[in-house]
Amino acid sequence: MHHSTPLIATIVGGLVLAFVFGAIAQRLRLPPLVGYLLAGVAMGPNTPGFVADQSLASELAELGVILLMFGVGLHFSLKDLLSVRKIAVPGAVVQIAVATALGVGLALLLGWPLGGGIVFGLALSVASTVVLLRALQDRRLLETDRGRIAVGWLIVEDLAMVLALVLIPALAEAFGAAGGASVGAGAIAATLAITIGKVMAFVAVMLIGGRRLIPRILDWVARTGSRELFTLSVLAVALGVALGAAYLFDVSFALGAFFAGMILAESPLSHRAAEESLPLRDAFAVLFFVSVGMLFDPSIVLRAPLQLLATLAIIIVGKSIAAFVIVRAFGYTRATAMTIAASLSQIGEFSFILAGLGLALGLMPQQGQDLILAGAILSILFNPVAFAIAERGLRKADPLVVPAATAAAAAPAAEAPAPLRTTTLHGHAIVVGYGRVGSLVAAGLRDAGAPHLVIEDREKPAAVARVDGAELLIGNAAEPRVLQAANLGGASHLFVAIPQSFEAGQVVKQARKANAELVIVARAHSDAEVSYLQQCGANMTIMGEREIAQAMLGLAVVPASRPPDASLP
Known about the structure:
By secondary structure, this protein is mainly alpha-helical. A 6-stranded parallel β-sheet has the order 3-2-1-4-5-6, with helices on both faces. The protein contains 23 helices and 6 strands. Mean pLDDT is 81; it is low at 398-418 and 560-569. The termini are far apart. It folds into 3 domains: 1-43; 56-407, Na+/H+ antiporter like fold, CATH 1.20.1530.20; 429-554, 3-Layer(aba) Sandwich (Rossmann fold), CATH 3.40.50.720. Helix 5 crosses helix 8 and helix 21 (501-514) runs parallel beside helix 22.
């Protein structure tokens, strides 16, 4: 019997097609993101075959944004956010103004009214949350100063768009909307004051009430010992706060989820919360890209090629140049400026909302929405290229720097980017990752007097490694240049202590190729990961659960001379 199941069809169709096209993209050495977008095009209304429910896909994508911003908040603190306010606030405001002005100019050339041009320009000024965060995560930049500036910039953009969505309907008649109601300056000022007040009220509630309540809830749930209940509590906090922020304070879902994560970051359980929510974050992030692809109408390329090129020029070139100049004007390094410029050279979810609002109010023609949607998907496809161009430019400027992994690159211009120099150690051990496992391994090597080198690309663990006196190489160990600088050929041992098995496999493969005699020890979380890392070339793979079980069994063997009720040491 046939049943109408649009939700199931949308989720299953999106994930299956995303897997197929993502795998093809990976095989062609393209970012999987390209495959996800093409999967959306394939199941969208503008191509033949299966057509998914577009409204459901958009809501599923919103869930992805919520969970992703919650995860980002888990790695942030209020101190981190305030530390970048001096560049993020004025930088975002000026960049929005520049992009909006460019959009207005293009709209006027196309014969649109001023109001349509303002909506069009605002839509082109705001970057996609998901794209920006995925780009930073893929390049291990999220926890660096550059990543903090980019996220702070994004938060300011979101707040600006929240205000825009409130003010545009109020100003619709002044902008030339058909049938718009007349609104005086006093009413506009009152609306603006109410909106700002709601945002401030939400922040106050989260900092005062949320800071006390949320960690206590998760601490109580953790004491129950139920893993599924803990996972459920994490999702309930992320989604509940996001929904409450939207319905009670008129704040965006993404901003609400970010603050929920930031408050939870103060809890000792934040690391576990991040792990439990990761699979859902990844799955729904994929559905976001699929939903974007569904909006794309390929015929726009033939109907308005020049207009589309001009739109892309504003998004990719205009915004990037504006961001680069602003960041450099504030005294930051070329690396920081190029990272921020590449991060912002795309548009996304807020752009779609603004386009729909402008069309509904009669401010903008249908062509405007088509150009925004086409500009979004093409700029998202181009974003990995933008990062590649930025990194190539940095290599030309300083061949010794590793752009995607230099933690000091976001410091003011007075601080030069950290050079990547080949170690002079021989017969040494290399420790990849200075987290909970890597730091213990390094401590054991240090106590034994064994020469060793630490490879780390995250700012905080790198700072701890420096304090501990370890020789440090800042960079992503999966990059050949970083491993070459660690002198693999002269090393005796390699300890791969990072939890990401796929990245660890890449490190192990390259290390084994560089030194056939190298003793490689890696960590794993499952039998499948153990097998994978051994196939990559690891001599030994340690699975935490198995070692814990063996230690427990070892303690269970009680000597006969000991009384049965004696405590084990």
